Amino acid sequence: MNLPGQSTSKNPPIEVVHRSENEENDGLKKLEPEKHTISHDAITQNGVPSGSPEPITPPGSAVEVEHLFPPDWTPPFYARYRLLTGAAGFLTLIWLIFIGYNFFSGFLTSSISALLPHELGILLAGLLGPIVLMWIFVGYFERSKVFEKESAALRWHLKQLTFPTEAESARASKVTDALRNQAYDLTCASEEVSERAQAARNLIRTQTADLLTASRQVSLNADTASEKLRQQGEDLVGASDRAIARAREAGNVLHYQSQDLINVSQSAASRTEEITSTLQKSGEELVLVTEAASLKANETADLFSRRTEHLSEVSTDAGTTLDRLGDLLIERANFLSDNAEEAAKKVDASGERLKEFSVDMTERSDHVAKQTEVMGDMLTRQTEILGAAVSESS
Hints:
Layout: H1 14-29, H2 77-80, H3 83-106, H4 109-113, H5 117-161, H6 166-331, H7 340-368, H8 371-393
Helix pairs in contact: 3-5, 6-7, 7-8
């Protein structure tokens, strides 16, 4: 339920609309009337306007708008400040407190539930009837003033829209005159444009005739060129026939030469076969020789390995013998002082024999490979070391 003074729509009140219109009218006072003119020189000879378009209002035909100010539609103070609504709300609150205090203090819940529906309805109507009547009274007097001002504002705006005054009629006549002048200027401009379009059409017709003449001349030149091309084509056909005949002659010559080349190649192939057979025989002989050489090399390598093993065994025995002799010399130095000369002679004899044996082995290993030289040097060094050790021990 809407309280009095409230509106169900979201539109602003009518007085706010009037205030905004007043502000717009105040702003319009500061604007100067514009003068719209049309320039007949803006259209070039080609019929295309040059530059930006200018307004079509002729000079001196601007309409001066008469600013009208609406009357004051401010509602009365009790409607504007809603005094009746506030008083009605206060009285409603007091009435409800009074009813609640007197009614519910004298009645119990059981007695209220015992009432019939129509009795309960009559009781509620009697309690809430004064409140309803009071709000109807408030709504009538408060909202009626607001609606009265709004209806007056609407009537005033409708009168302004229907031109009820002479000033507004004169203003409308000025507007129509300005539109008539603009229409006349547009008619003149359109006629000028049509004349220029006719001139352009004539120019296009002349250029079209020139193009037709040029196209005929081009067609004649094309016929002449085609005749020349046909003659050149015939000449090319004759030249191609002659070239074909020469190519056939050259083909025959090449055929004979290719036959000769085939014969020569066959004879060369037979010779190459003979050479390959000869080379094959010589290769087989070389294979046999290499096999014999490899067998001899294997035998030599086996002999060298056997002699090397024997030499290593002899050197090992000599090393062990020297170790034993060293131990005996250390342990029995006092006992061997008398027999030192005999032991030295024996060692010298064994060293000479070893040296002769190593020299003999070195001579044999020089014929087999270079590695035997290294082994001979090692044996020589060992014998020298052994001789030095014997001399030191003696």
